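Hey everyone, long-time lurker, first post.

I ran two proteins through the pipeline my lab uses and got sequence/structure pairs for each. Pasting them in order. The first:
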Amino acid sequence: MHAARRGDDAEAGDADRVVLRAEVRLLLMPSLRTATEADPSAIRPMTHRKRVLFVCVENANRSQMAEAFARIHGGVGVEAFSAGSRPSGVVNPKAIRFMAELGYDLAAHGSKSLDDIEGEFDAVVTMGCGDSCPWVPAKRREDWALPDPRHMDDDAYRAVRDEISARVRALLASL
């Protein structure tokens, strides 16, 4: 009977260590904290991470927000990237402002080139850039053909942002 209790205690101790490791990861990686506070199930084993890439010409608005939402909605189960075929070099201040409304700091992102992206992806999503986006190896490809919100008023910009969030959530659920 004593041995059985020690076995139960050992199993409980293992579970406590797993939870503690997850909590330490959250403390050390603030970007994970936001995602897991919104959805505690976002803590998943690191071995099953899905790789997703969001592409638009400038990598300044839509693809940046999509990358952010993939990190928010996917948590540690997703490796999210964004890039542009002709990156502008900056993230649009409106994108930064409207993501800040949701508690996400997009100012930490940078506009990146597709030339800097390597490897295969579970999904590559173009944001309506058509032929400007070169081929990138992926198990799944989608073109969302979203309007570029760069010159939109605040309400229209938020509508595009919220549409991107919904589409990212659906994409991740289907992978």
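...and the second, right after it:
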Amino acid sequence: MRGSWVSRVLSWVALLVVGAMFGLAATVAHASSLSGVPWIAQTPVLSATLGSAALGIVLGVLACGGMLLAVRLLLQDRWAALITGLGMLAGMVVISGSGPGGSVIVPNDVLGVVWTWTVAVLVLLVVAWPDFSRIRRLQREAALRQAQGPGEQGQGQGGGS
């Protein structure tokens, strides 16, 4: 992502807000399951297989991971992905505590802990993933130098006869 510093900072602010919205929505929905759906609860086979499945955490991981991947791959900017991920983490942390009425959105149970660490690991993986385009470019340049041979490399440097 190249451009002026103003456009870069404004895009980072927008990505922070988008990341916070994804983090908020996924945190609210992380404990959702299909156990409350009447036709699933009434069918014993579906109730046993899908009733206790945490559908919200699966959808939250897919949404947040997809957003992080899209930012990293489309903008080709590690910092933009980090800002988006920090927005997700901030959105999650803001509503994870107990509210003024004592309600808790992310309880201290297995699902809550898994959700908290999953978002952090997603951000870490997407931001820390190496940029293979630079490696491919260096490999192409090395292959070109090798294909030219030792005699042709010295001619293009301006020295010689």
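Reply from user beta_strand_b:
Welcome! Quick read of the second one: The helical segments are 5-29, 38-42, 44-50, 55-75, 78-96, 110-128, 132-148, 150-155. The chain has a mean pLDDT of 82.
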